[in-house]
Amino acid sequence: MFSRLREDLASVRERDPAARSTFEVLTCYPGVHALMFHRLAHAAWGQGFFWLGRFISHISRFLTGIEIHPGATIGRRVFIDHGMGTVIGETAEIGDDCTIYQAVTLGGTSLYRGTKRHPTLGKGVVVGAGAKVLGGFTVGDGAKIGSNAVVVKPVPAGATAVGNPARLVDPERDAAREQKAEQMGFSAYGVTRDMDDPVSKALHGLLDHSVETDRRLQVILARLEAAGIKLDETVEPTDRFDASRLSKMVD
Questions:
Q1: CB–CB of 73/102 below 8 Å?
Q2: How far, rounded to the nearest angstrom, does the alpha carbon of residue 251 sit from its chain's CA centroid?
Q3: Which end of the chain, N or C, is more open, meaning fewer C-beta atoms within 10 Å of its C-beta?
Q4: Least confident span in 144-158, 200-214, 224-238
């Protein structure tokens, strides 16, 4: 138990630049206290002392603001930063070296007892503040969940999930979208980025369509030139896209 505590303290010192000393972490970090209480509650739960486990968990919730069901399985060197409002369900499993921020919910979507209702986090997963991970699926090793994301399906190892409902970030597609927006003189993220704002979603869809259309046109032009068909360069452009007006709509 004491070796686990030393690991917890060391992991906090390593991951939190605000931690000034081991003594400060031991006495002032509710995430560390919640894990200490949870180990006692989990041990009682495993021995069949269910009421005792729940009572220890209840005391921990009262003192730390972090609710961890005594049936949850938590690995080594897990860091719950700030932690206020964090809820971890009964069948949740958290791998080693995970980082969980405040107001996170690892919740269930099923009412049937005896089933795997809560998520499993692999090793090294980071869950941002306010995120909700709901269901009995797996978040792969090294994955990242963005703040306020609502995740309802599995996340592959190393991936990043953002938004509501959460989607996996595609770096290449996002880069193409940003490049096209810059060419148009339009700020695609004037209001929000990777969030659930309907205007933002619609504009992102337009940009994605524009990127795909440009790609197809380039392929067609390249094949025409390869076939020896000379293009008329005197054709006037018909694009009437008003980038400045669209940018003002989302400012």
A1: no
A2: 26
A3: C
A4: 224-238
Nearest to 203 by CA among 183, 171, 181: 181
Taking the CB of residue 121, how many other CB atoms lie within 10 A of it? 28
- Pair 119, 134: CB distance under 8 Å: yes
Question: Which tokens in the block code for residue 180?
Answer: 């096209």
Q: Across-strand partners of 121?
A: 94, 139
Can you tell me the distance from the alpha carbon of 14 to that of 22, in angstroms, rounded to the nearest whole number?
11
Tokens standing for 106? 């690892």
CB 30 within 8 A of CB 84: yes
Angle at CA of residue 26, ends 130 and 42, nearest 5°:
65
- pLDDT for position 198: 57
Distances (CA, A) of 234 to 215, 223, 231, 239: 22, 20, 9, 15
Range picked from 25-34, 105-114, 156-165 for highest mean pLDDT: 25-34
Question: How far is residue 96's CA from residue 141's CA, in Å, rounded to a whole number?
Answer: 10
At 133, which helix (H) or strand (E)?
strand 132-134
Cβ–Cβ under 8 Å, residues 19 and 9: no
The predicted model scores a pTM of 0.68
By three-state DSSP, how is residue 15 classified? helix
DSSP count for the chain of H helices, then E strands: 7, 15
Residues 77 and 7: their CA atoms lie apart, in Å, by 6
